[in-house]
Amino acid sequence: MISLAPPLMPVLAAADAAPSPVGTVALSILVVGLLGAVFGIILFVASKKFAVKTDPRVEEVLGALPGANCGACGLAGCPAYAEGVVLKGLAVNLCAPGGAKAAKMIAAVMGVEPGESERRVSVLRCRGSRARAKERMEYRGVADCRAAALVLGGPKACTYGCLGLGTCVEACPFGAIVMGADGLPHVLEARCTACGRCVDACPRHLYVLAPEKRTVHVLCSSRDPGRATRAACEVGCIACKACERACKFDAIHVVDNLAVIDEEKCKNCGACVRACPQAIIGDFRKMRKALAASARSATNAGGEAAAS
Amino acid sequence: MRTFRGGVHPHDHKELAREAAIEPVPLPERLVVSMNQQLGAPAKAVVEPGAEVLRGELLGEAGGFVSAPVHAPTSGRVVDVAPHPHPVAGSAPAVVIEPDGRDAWAEGCDRDSGERLDAVEPGEIVARIREAGVVGMGGATFPTHVKLSPPKDKSIEVVILNGCECEPYLTADHRLMLERTAEVVSGLRLLVKAVGASRGVIGVEANKPDAAQALSGLAAEFGFPVEVLRVKYPQGAEKQLIKALTGREVPSGGLPMDVGCLVQNVGTAVAAHEAVLRARPVTERVCTVTGRGAARPGNYLVRVGMPMAHLLAHAGVRGGVRRLVLGGPMMGLAQWTADVPVLKGTSGVLALMDAPEWKTRACISCGRCVEGCPSYLVPSRLSILAEAGAFSEMIDEANALDCIECGVCTYVCPARRPIVQWIRQAKWEARIRKMKADRVRAEEAKRAQEKESAATA
Q1: Model confidence over B54-90: pLDDT tens digits?
Q2: Which of B335, B389, B428 sits opposite A150 (nearest CB)?
Q3: pLDDT digit string, tens, across residues B230-256
Q4: Most CB atoms closer than 10 Å: which of A35, A69, B16, B326?
Q5: Which residue, B160, B123, B158, B137, is CA-closest to B68?
Q6: CATH code of residue B176
Q7: Do the chains contact at B421 and A142, CB–CB below 8 Å?
């Protein structure tokens, strides 16, 4: 081994040989201090000369936003939206996670009316769980709905339904979608902020953002003719038009083999829910009540409230 | 012996069907002629149920420039025009024909024009190939006339005929080169003439010495050398074949014409010969049915639209088949039903008796995929990015779009990682991203225009 020490020795020796240690220290302080002063002045002048004027309201608006950077407003994150509101005059109620509260705060900063911001939630328009929807092949590829959909249209017999591999669960930044034991994802409405990530993530376009107060939804997306749908799934729309006949408000129609609700006309009465022989029209009011009841009983029993 | 960088040597199993001469399969009760026979736009059906058609009559017209027409594979009655299971797209519109048994050609088709090859003008060759619906018969089904119509600023100097058939199991091209040698060479002469190339060359893998020998005599007459290439998968991939034969590399995102090359499968050459000199549109092809599940593995002359179940029954495929793969084992697609029809690009059907189960594990960075990748990619990095959902990075930083999906990385991976599927997904995400960007751009342009018109008003 070659020692590294000998070449260093002269340097150390030279340092030792300096005439006065006190003088060296004083000189160092002087040099560094002078350098600091010069750079300080340069920085001060530069900061004044090249100052960027920012609107203080941007910071205030940013403070009112939840900071999830979910992109629900259509911009790349909260800072971009805050800038957009102040500098480009975007509407103040575009933040879905922030809801009415954030809209009010932003409106106060900007000195405008908050406008209407209706709470919306994400709805999965498929009830084809593992037990109800047939699989036509065994899929052993990448466990991702988007990848599975590329393989001959996916493993399920219904080419419109949920693939059940949980890409939406992964995509939700708020943990509002959980995979149920039945192989279908479930939206936890309390946590849903209608940011729309699930809408983009689902290769089958099964999610829709609907106002929370709308309680009747068609929970099927199959546009196959009735016979094909029935062969593929127990809970598919067979286009029988029973809902059309039951509706007193002319609000539900079968279009392309699928029942579609006209939001303008629907009164959420639930007549179609009762009429549907396939039970694919869901009444969310009932569901929410049941959910609340089960949560209550669970807390009463002292157990962990597990919403399913 | 010439070859390219990378690749693998899977057991080829070609002994199963290599010796079986091409054998025609009797017509089934129904033919399901898919309108989606080619890469690009699907054909548009031009017949109605009830119509009587003759073999070679037009069933669907090309749906665009990158598309090809589809013709009746036999004479009979059209009984249905409806969506039908499709081996690649999942489902596609198809014309269902009930054969009348006469198998009569339409007027003008199947004539020996008596025309000498030299008498046909290059433009006429391309036109006849387009009208006959010739597509890449190796399996990619890219419309041949598009490849034969390079833009003005590109010139094709060498036409390469691909007789490698590097996919294991498949022997259809091998038999074609042995039994229809004259047509293969005639097809090459037509292709060379169509693009005005200065030379043509035939590439054959070293495991088919008989085919190379059969071709070399006749090809030499016209000055086409037959090059014997090392046996290695994917030797028959377009860019790898060009590299092996000419030493040129197709640039990233480029086409063979960028390096003055045109590659066509030997089956396409035969189809071109039939189309130009015999006025026969593509209505049949040679398809290998093999695998341990087939009692009579062989090379069958099948009509386009023949239901797979009919072909399998003819080749003695009985129960117990665990996997049905259309195409070769490396790039072919496993099927969920034998209800799918034969397409112009169906080069083989494998009836396999096993369905191995495996578990995907974490990448161990062994580098086998990097060594094997013929496209100079780093598949391990691509797979890790895909797991993290970083599809944009796969495309922008790891060149996922240069992947030819040959399957080498997935084949050699000891951690059983589905790398090719991840890359396919990345390519799909790239398409979606581009669509979204285009939409945003269009909206912005519209807004700018509105603003402008408002300003002028």
Answers
A1: 999 999 999 999 999 999 999 999 999 999 999 998 8
A2: B428
A3: 999 999 999 999 999 999 999 999 999
A4: B326
A5: B137
A6: 3.40.50.11540
A7: yes
Residue B26 domain-assigned (yes or no): no
Are B185 and B193 a contacting pair, CB within 8 Å? no
Q: Which of A140, A147, A152 sits opposite B425 (nearest CB)?
A: A147
For residue B372, pLDDT beyond 50: yes
Percent of chain A having pLDDT more than 70?
A: 90
Give the domain-ending residue among B251, B279, B307: B279
DSSP-H helix ranges across B11-153: 122-131, 144-147
DSSP string of A211-248, one letter each residue: ETT--EEE-----S-HHHHHHHBTT------HHHHH-S
User: Is B94 part of any domain?
Assistant: no
Query: B423 in a domain, yes or no?
Result: yes
The residue-averaged pLDDT of A27-43 equals 96
Q: Cα separations (Å) of A135 from A239, B219, B297?
A: 22, 52, 31
Per mean pLDDT, which range of A95-99, B125-129, B236-240 is the poorest?
Answer: A95-99
Min Cα–Cα distance to chain B from A152, Å = 4
**pLDDT (0 to 100) of residue A18:** 55
Asked whether residue B344 is assigned to any structural domain, the reply reads no
For the stretch A72-93, pLDDT in tens is 888 888 999 998 888 888 888 8
CA distance linking residue A165 with residue A148, whole number of Å: 9
- Considering the four listed CATH numbers 3.40.50.1260, 3.30.70.20, 3.60.90.10, 2.40.37.10, the one that applies to the domain covering A214-297 is 3.30.70.20
- Say how far apart CA A153 and CA A140 lie, in whole Å: 14
If one counts the domains in chain B, the total is: 2
pTM tops 0.95: no
Query: Which CATH number does the domain A119-213 belong to among 3.40.640.10, 3.10.20.580, 3.40.50.2300, 3.30.70.20?
Result: 3.30.70.20
Check whether A190 has a pLDDT greater than 70: yes
What's the pLDDT tens digit per position in B280-330? 999 999 999 999 999 999 999 999 999 999 999 999 998 889 999 999 999
Q: What ipTM does this complex have? A: 0.84
Q: What residues make up the domain containing B236?
A: 111-279
Does A214-297 match A119-213 at the fold level?
A: yes
Q: How far apart are CA B302 and CA B23, in angstroms?
A: 9
**Contacts of residue A139, Cβ cutoff 8 Å, sequence gap at least 6:** A148, A151, A154, A155
Domain boundaries, chain A: 64-110, 119-213, 214-297
Name the minimum distance, in Å, from the CA of A261 to any CA of chain B: 28
pLDDT of A1 above 50: no
Suggest the residue from A135, A136, A142 to mutate for an interface test with chain B (most B CBs closer than 10 A): A142
Average pLDDT over residues B449-454: 84
CATH assignment of A64-110, given 3.30.1120.10, 1.10.15.40, 1.10.238.10, 3.40.50.2000?
1.10.15.40
Chain B contact for A146 (CB, 8 A cutoff): yes
